[in-house]
Amino acid sequence: HQSKLDFFCKLGYGKQDICKVLESLGQEALEDDVLKELIRMGSKPQALESQAQPSPLKLVARGSCSTSPGSKWLGEDEGDSSDHLRPIVIDGSNVAMSHGNKEVFSCWGIQLAVDWFRERGHTYIKVFVPLWRKEPARQDSPIADQHILEELEKQSILVYTPSRKVKGKRVVCYDDRYIVKVAYEKDGVIVSNDHYRDLQNENPEWKWFIEQRLLMYSFVSNRFMPPDDPLGRHGPTLNNFLSKQPVLPEPKWQPCPYGKKCTYGNKCKFYHPERPHQAQLSVADELRAKIKVPLRLGKEEEQCNRSP
């Protein structure tokens, strides 16, 4: 009795369940019978019971590194629409001067561009403007709707590039370098009509990035309008250009320009509508196939005539 009790205890069953089964079956019961009775009673080993019970949730400090990879912070939305959209870096001076017809620094143009990307669902939007634009407007550098810059700065969208005065002269840092550098590090999109040729010659990696990630635009009656084909007619669409995971279009068969006169046969890469269900053979193979068919029919007729 003690040996059987120890055996089933090692398997993980409780002593009370084992004693009940041994009392009902007797001490001479076989181990298989005892195991069947334990299973019939619904008794489970302690290891299986611990696996079946869900583990209690653990509260972890928000700044700790001990969180599991699958855990998310409180307040995070699982279906965040911005996960598949690229970050946006706007050349504020270029956009504002374009909206002001290259005469006035129009801050309203920056607001129109930011609103357009917000409506699409982009959450990372940064606008770079030189710091001296916070100064009062002058005749040689007029500025309109300057209060918009303060509002965008409060929303952590606008970033001022540094500038200072040395002996009455203004020393301005190169804001284009900030724009390209941040967009390159974030793997985002640059919104500007400037080609940044000096920066392209400076760094070959920036050259490729500017060529592939520069989004140009136009203003039509206070409407911010980027092109539907940012990289040309044969390039990606605007939605794919602004997405991290572009959606490839379904392949479409282009009809052969030669039609029935095509001599490429099965090597032709175009679609032939006159033979949709036939293998695309060369002209020589088609002629051979047509010749073989009547010859076979003639031989079959001769055999039928010879037979009694």
From TrEMBL:
Family of this protein: Belongs to the ZC3H12 family.
Protein name: ZC12D ribonuclease
Zinc finger (C3H1-type) stretch: 250-275
PROSITE patterns reported for this sequence: ZF_C3H1
UniProt keywords, alphabetically: Endonuclease, Hydrolase, Magnesium, Metal-binding, Nuclease, Zinc, Zinc-finger
Residues of the C3H1-type domain: 250-275
GO MF annotation, one: mRNA binding
Gene Ontology cellular component list: cytoplasmic ribonucleoprotein granule; nucleus
Cofactor(s) annotated in UniProt: Mg(2+)
Coiled coil: none
Transmembrane segments annotated in the record for this chain: none
Taxonomy, superkingdom: Eukaryota
